[in-house]
């Protein structure tokens, strides 16, 4: 009997860190789209410069072959040599065009520009939705990672002249300060001489979320231990809980909570919070603030 491997994916909600990753990819995709579009324009123009002369030469030599009988006998040798020279020149130009892979690069840059644009719009549309209407974050990040890697592997190399044009276009003295600021905020590809340390991508927990997590942990600790604690220990736990709530509330709302707000937010079936504890903690904070104000005066 074959062993069956089952994977359990933990339910993951959208966070600012997920959005930060996608913003980084979206910005770079927008830059790559511009770079490949400009490269396509350049190679398209070069391809035209190679193709049109060959078309003209081939047409002229083909027509000249039909008129060869009307050329005087004394000049036919030179006439044939001239036609042969033009044919050889057309062949040389065509061979150089094929060797430089101008047509292939022109098409590759065109396809890459379209692909990067689709990837950019995919991320932009997803981030524009409310978090609860978005795709599952794990699946979306995985799909975007694979798509980003594929595009990086298959996209042709960007010429140095195009990179210089990119920097000159979006970072010159003729632009106003707002556009310069937007360009500086943009996450640019590494090929644009924009090197950033990996340390900048290190996960950093949001300070507000950290406080909420720590407070929930404190509540759980009180709930788990208050049943076995003595009256004095239980009172200390409750005072610590109220103290932490008041401190967080003051930092977030720039004022102290009322007694009713504390009681409403700390309602729990395992914690019977007495009003005198709340009053005592609030009076302590208010007294300290009053003392500080008097000292400043």
Give a brief outline of the structure.
The chain crosses the membrane at residues 46-66, 78-100. It contains ten helices and no strands.
Describe this structure in words.
It comes from viral metagenome. This is SMODS and SLOG-associating 2TM effector domain-containing protein. The chain crosses the membrane at residues 46-66, 78-100. The longest helix has 51 residues, at 16-66. It is built from ten helices and no strands. It has helices at 16-66, 76-99, 102-128, 137-154, 160-170, 177-185, 207-225, 231-253, 259-265, 275-296. The protein folds into two domains: 16-201, no CATH class; 207-292, no CATH class. The model is unreliable at 1-9 (pLDDT under 50). The N and C termini lie far apart (83 Å). The chain is 71% helix and 0% strand. Helix 1 runs parallel beside helix 4 (137-154) and helix 8 (231-253) packs across helix 10 (275-296). By secondary structure, it is mainly alpha-helical.
List its traits.
297 residues, mainly alpha, rod-shaped
Tell me, briefly, the overall form: rod-shaped
Unreliable segments of 5+ consecutive residues: 1-9
Overall structural class, as computed from helix and strand content, comes to mainly alpha
| Distinct helical segment count | 10
Helix content: over 70%
Q: Strand-and-helix sequence, N→C?
A: HHHHHHHHHH
Largest sheet: none
